[in-house]
Amino acid sequence: MNIYFETSLNVVLKELFDVNVSVISETTTTGGSINETSILQLDNDQKVFIKKNKSSLKNMFKAEAEGLLAMSEIEGGPRIPGIMAVIQNNDYQYLILEAIEQHKPGDDFWQKFGKSLANMHKKKFSQYGFEIDNYIGATEQKNQFENDWISFFREHRLGYQSKLAFDSGLISLSEFKKFEEFQNRLSEYIEKDNFYPSLLHGDLWSGNYMVDENGNPVLIDPAVYYGDAEADLAMTMLFGRFSEEFYQSYFDTFGPPDNGFEDRMEIYQLYHLLNHLNLFGKSYLSACLKIVNKFS
């Protein structure tokens, strides 16, 4: 079924349910600063989750849908909300997903989460990147395919973000050169026995997972690409770690980390800190420079 439409919400709802349906109520949900999100109760006893954005972030929901679809194909991976429609018209863009109720995690939630994420990371691809550029927050995320992980992370992650920060006046010329020097020596700082392109969520922090009615992990709001699996783990550790049961279960399934894991975590976190610098301002600059100075 086609999920991409250039029409109105009402027309798409009719096509989805094969009858005229009306919205009885709309309950606003929280958690995002970029999009308006809500649960629509329809008069056919169905509920849908909807994200709405009237900004100029081109193809944001189309790219998000492509990422959700890629993750949904992983056998034994986390649950992914079913995609019902992506709507783009002159006024708004909408993403309609199945409505999943948030529940409390059970005793085995973190074990399930670690194992399912490891299963997703075992999904190998031939190159680093993704079929479509997408967004990390409101920042465009460049996903041009590369054969080499260091090159990809240098050019399309750290290099892209530091150039954005310099162009917007958030870092000085001397600071920008310091970032460039750091990026040019990445191969010295990121070392392990084996890199391969894993399917990543891309923005895996505590606000981007849910617990469904069966106690299973659900991944939402992705910034999907193929990269080093540890880049996902780094984000889980940036603003407060997940449960230690999660990491134990993950490594039991995926295999133990190579030497230098902790250093790589900081370097991969630098990407997200630079993005926060670009999104939220100079309060994040000192954290970025602390990592660069540690390795320089």
| CATH architectural grouping of the largest domain | Alpha-Beta Complex
State the oligomer.
single chain
Percent in strands? 15-25%
> Approximately how much helix is present in the residues?
40-55%
Class by SSE composition:
alpha+beta
What is the number of strand segments? Answer: 12
Task: Describe this structure as you would to a colleague.
With 296 residues, this protein is α+β, with helices and mostly antiparallel strands. The protein folds into two domains: 4-98, Phosphorylase Kinase, domain 1; 109-295, Aminoglycoside phosphotransferase (APH), C-terminal lobe (Aminoglycoside 3'-phosphotransferase, Chain: A, domain 2), CATH 3.90.1200.10. Helix content is 40%, strand content 18%. The chain contains ten helices and twelve strands. The protein has helices at 9-17, 60-72, 109-121, 149-167, 173-184, 186-189, 230-236, 244-254, 261-280, 285-295; strands spanning 4-5, 23-28, 36-42, 47-53, 83-88, 93-98, 134-136, 139-141, 198-200, 209-211, 217-219, 225-227. The strands form four sheets. It has a six-stranded mixed beta sheet, sandwiched between helices. Helix 7 packs across helix 9 (261-280).
Strand and helix map with partners:
Layout: E1 4-5, H1 9-17, E2 23-28, E3 36-42, E4 47-53, H2 60-72, E5 83-88, E6 93-98, H3 109-121, E7 134-136, E8 139-141, H4 149-167, H5 173-184, H6 186-189, E9 198-200, E10 209-211, E11 217-219, E12 225-227, H7 230-236, H8 244-254, H9 261-280, H10 285-295
Structure summary:
With 296 residues, the chain is α+β, with helices and mostly antiparallel strands. Helix content is 40%, strand content 18%.
